[in-house]
Amino acid sequence: MPKKSDAGTGTGFTVSAATAKLFIDEQSKAITKMLQDAISKSKSKSSEEAPETEKKQAERMNHLKYKVKII
Predict the structure, then answer these.
(1) How far is residue 62's CA from residue 56's CA, in Å, rounded to a whole number?
(2) What b/e sequence results for 44-55 when a residue is b if at least 16 CB atoms lie within 10 Å of its CB, and e otherwise?
(3) Compositional bias (Basic and acidic residues) at which positions (predicted)?
(4) d(Cα 20, Cα 14) in Å, to the nearest integer?
């Protein structure tokens, strides 16, 4: 029979060590997936913003070019 361990919830509920490990493994996988999704969204967001930044830089350069012509 698996060794019993306290779940640490303060409820007095006990679970087997194998069940606790399974729960921890599942939580770990879920957290890892959430972090990977957040990182990929962050990367895709920054890659989407990059062309916009380049466009703004080009507009600024054109603005400066016109200023130089006017002066």
Answers:
(1) 10
(2) eeeeeeeeeeee
(3) 45-61
(4) 9
Question: Any idea of the CA torsion for 62, 53, 48, 45, to the nearest 10 degrees?
Answer: -160
Per-residue pLDDT tens over the stretch 44-60: 776 666 566 677 777 77
pLDDT digits (tens, 9 = 90+) for 28-41: 999 999 999 888 88
What pTM value is reported for the model? 0.44
Reduce the secondary structure of 11-43 to three states and give it as a string: CCCEEEHHHHHHHHHHHHHHHHHHHHHHHHHHH
